[in-house]
Fold this sequence. Notes:
Elements: H1 5-20, E1 44-48, E2 55-61, E3 71-76, E4 79-85, E5 91-94, E6 100-106, E7 109-116, E8 129-133, H2 143-150, H3 152-178
Amino acid sequence: MNIPFALRTAISLLCCLGLLLPSTLFGASPQPPSAPQVRPMLRMVDSVLGPQGTLHGKVVDSRGAAVAGSPVVLVQEAGPVAETVTDAQGRFAVTNLAPGTYLAAADEGIGAFRVWPEATAPPSARSEVLIVSDGTLVRGQGGLYQWVSENFWLTSALVVTAIAVPVALIATGRDSKSN
Length: 179
């Protein structure tokens, strides 16, 4: 099958152009999800607020040793509520908290807590929260995907080169055979 050189060149250029254009131009519009999205769940732990709305807690590593100097951040849906740092025994205290649910993050650990005033706390509520900083928190940073997304033009140039060089070599080989 003998395809004219101009047609081969036009097809190659269209293929390269297709790689450079955003994929959203060719895709269907996003559809709303048919089922609710599932978020990973943390086990909610009940805790009792101390005097002046104080939440007491401790940060330990996976072996149970206290983690000193660990930053602790309490977050609600609206955003960060309080920040503190653990003492030499890994303990922390945050005052002036309102009853409600909080996420507490410290180093590589996270916990979900429902804090209650002492008068309405369930019997199983704890007086101190515990955050285990065990190193299993994965943030998904780095790697090939991040490099590709940060270097779009370089990645595009590599893809175009990977396609154009073999096409040019094949075209040159066929043209030299026909002479």
